[in-house]
Amino acid sequence: MAIDPTFLFFAFQPPKPDAASALLAFQTAWESAFIGAAAGASGIGSGALDPAIAAMAAGLATLYVPIGTPVSAATAITTAVTAFWATLLAASPTVFTTPPPAPIIIVPGGVPSPGLAGLPVALQSVFTSNVLVKDPAIATAALVTALTAAMVGGTILGSIPPAPPVPIPIL
Fold it and tell me: CA 125, 129, 134, 139 torsion: positive or negative?
């Protein structure tokens, strides 16, 4: 899984026609990276990410708050990515589909990417560096690296009955 830098470049480079366009570009970058993901033989079904992307959108909406209400971009993006993971893991049986014959039974739960814990610091570093360097290409590459770290390494839970559920890496 990897984020397409083209979408991120658009999402974070001014000028934007409106906040919704920037948010949609970010969500599209994230979703397009996850579309090809699989956990074992279980792939992501068509439209299955919609609830997780909606949860992400709610977190991203805090980036554009009324003047006088400061919100850190790093905090808002981390909140959005955390909401995505929470929704994805809770809905994993409907997100990840196993083609027939379906020997693997997916159950709710799992573990988000270990890189999620370091995302706020990584993003703050990217944003601080971007203010100093002012190079969109460098900033976009650093942002792709930070976000990819928060995307890879997660697991869902699944089993081949009657065995108990075990972690299955999302690749």
Answer: negative
pLDDT at 24: 81
CB contact set of 86 (below 8 Å; sequence gap of 6+)? 55, 112
CA-to-CA separations, 15 to 23, 24, 49, 63, 109, in angstroms, rounded: 13, 15, 29, 16, 40
| Range list of β-strands (E), the chain | 38-39, 42-44, 96-97, 105-111, 155-159, 166-169
State the pTM of this model: 0.88
Q: How far is CA 10 from CA 28, 33, 34, 136, 140, in A?
A: 11, 16, 19, 10, 10
Lowest mean pLDDT among 80-84, 130-134, 155-159: 130-134
Average pLDDT, the chain: 84
Show the tokens assigned to 36: 């090809």
Report CA-CA distances (Å) from 142 to 11, 15, 115, 128, 138: 14, 20, 14, 11, 6
Tokens 């209400």 locate to 69
pLDDT digits (tens, 9 = 90+) for 16-32: 556 677 778 888 888 98
**Secondary element (H or E) of residue 71:** none
Say if residue 11's pLDDT is above 70.
no
